[in-house]
Write a structure and sequence with these properties.
Blueprint lengths: L25 H7 L25 H9 L13 H14 L3 E5 L2 H12 L5 E5 L4 H10 L6 E5 L4 H7 L4 E7 L11 H10 L3 E5 L4 H4 L9 E5 L13 E5 L1 H15 L5 H12 L1 H20 L4 E5 L22 E6 L2 H11 L4 E2 L9 E3 L11 H7 L5 E5 L5 H12 L6
This protein binds pyridoxal-5'-phosphate (PLP).
Pyridoxal-5'-phosphate (PLP) binds next to helix 4 and helix 5.
Length: 414
């Protein structure tokens, strides 16, 4: 915890968790951690828009470059605003070290470059963000790193896919768009037993709802572009984990190869973290209400939401993630024409594949985010032609429901 003021006497928020060691609660760290006040006495965190840093003497420059003396040299290596974001996110995820990156994909690439080598093997869940699958299949394969895929929730399938060369297990939970989940404690246990690292892309839950490191994962990956920003402004990412793997090995890739986060984007994410818990609770509340409403609409065949009792991994809500998160998917009757008709009838929801924004978004996965899969692959993944995904924003839910009701009225119900 690095913080220039003394927060312990702050009124804890309704959900501030204070750990027994006396560390300030989550909400306090989200607001306070990482800012070292400069001599100007500023209250808000400053943006250090500087590419390089000045030394007091030639000797100091030499000591910085040799590593004998800590301190800033160049913003590809370190920047105070970026560091403030890294310290705050590390604290919220419960990790020793955090490295910020230019995008979520840069975070995944840096993990692979920092921790894997030619001949290594990855086991990943089949339901992954499309660019992650592309990175593994098209690019890492060229450098001698192979990937196998298995069904996210089936621990036996993970176990069976592990080979002697397997070094990394990689998953997203809940998955996109069907919100499938894996028991992270059990998967972390398996990774340990089989001598692999477990990396969790925690984009959908954020540390406000789920902390994979506390459940035994080795690495947490973020697309900060989504909920950490929370208002759809900037692209960025981060990796959180231990001092050696993340603080040295992943950091070394960033510092050398250069997909570092800009100070301006770091500042936007730093401010985003201050309201993260409030926003995630509101997104979850809205999504839970929408899922219940959708479940009783005649035009809807099936709802996919972790908070619904019929969800196959419903038992993991509460056990490993607080609340169901902000993403709801559902099958509309009438296949693609039904789904497209519903989407085109909306006037409030934004037709875009992004998520984690204050604005609710609506997508047809089969023809957009998952459009590159063959029809057979889509069917195997459960992504039907009638499937629609809504990333619930922070508008009044009655307005979202009214917007969807208009389109659902057009769907043939017989
Ligand atoms: C968006 C996203 C990414 C990639 O992040 P970028 O910031 O777009 O590079 C990775 N994983 C998940 C789950 C995402 O939603």
């Amino acid at each position: 915890m690095t913080c220039t003021t003394t927060p312990p006497d702050l009124e804890p928020g309704a959900d501030s968790r204070r750990d027994p060691a006396g560390e300030p609660g989550f909400a306090t760290r989200a607001v306070r951690t990482g800012h070292r006040r400069t001599g100007e006495g500023e209250h808000g965190e400053p943006i250090f828009t500087t590419s390089s840093f000045v030394f007091e003497s030639a000797a100091q420059a030499a000591a910085r470059f040799s590593g004998d003396s800590p301190g800033n040299i160049y913003s590809r290596f370190t920047n105070p605003t970026v560091r403030a974001f890294e310290e705050r996110l590390a604290s919220l995820e419960g990790g020793e070290a955090c490295v910020a990156t230019a995008s979520g994909m840069a975070a995944i690439l840096a993990v692979c470059m920092g921790l894997l080598q030619s001949g290594d093997h990855i086991v990943a869940s089949r339901s992954l963000f499309g660019s992650t699958t592309m990175l593994f299949n098209k690019y890492l394969s060229r450098f001698g790193i192979a990937t196998s895929y298995c069904t996210l929730s089936e621990l036996a399938a993970w176990d069976a896919a592990i080979r002697p060369q397997t070094r990394l297990l990689f998953c997203e939970t809940p998955s996109n768009p069907l919100t499938e989940m894996v028991d992270l404690r059990a998967l972390a246990e398996l990774a340990r037993r089989r001598n692999c690292l477990l990396a969790v892309d925690n984009c959908f839950c954020t540390p406000a709802l789920q902390r994979p490191l506390e459940l035994g994962a080795d690495l947490v990956i973020h697309s900060a572009t989504k909920y950490l920003d929370g208002q759809g402004r900037c692209v960025g990412g981060a990796v959180v984990g231990d001092r050696k793997r993340v603080g040295e090995e992943v950091y070394g890739v960033l510092r050398t190869a250069g997909p570092t986060l800009s100070p301006f984007n770091a500042w936007v994410f730093l401010k985003g973290l201050e309201t993260l818990e409030l926003r995630m609770e509101a997104h979850s509340r809205g999504a839970a209400r929408l899922a219940d409403w959708l479940a009783v609409q005649p035009g809807v065949e099936r709802v996919y939401y972790p908070g619904r009792p019929e969800h196959p991994q419903h038992h993991l809500v509460g056990a490993q993630q607080r609340g169901g998160g902000g993403i709801v998917a559902f099958d509309v009757r009438g296949a693609r024409p039904g789904a497209w008709g519903l989407i085109d009838a909306t006037r409030l929801l934004s037709i875009t594949a992004n998520l984690g924004d204050t604005k609710s978004t609506i997508t047809h996965p089969a023809s957009t985010t998952h459009g590159r899969l063959s029809p057979q692959e889509r069917a195997a993944s459960g992504i039907g032609e009638g499937l629609v995904r809504v990333a619930v924003g922070l508008e009044s839910m009655a307005d979202i429901e009214a917007d969807l009701a208009r389109g659902l009225a057009l769907v043939p119900v017989a």
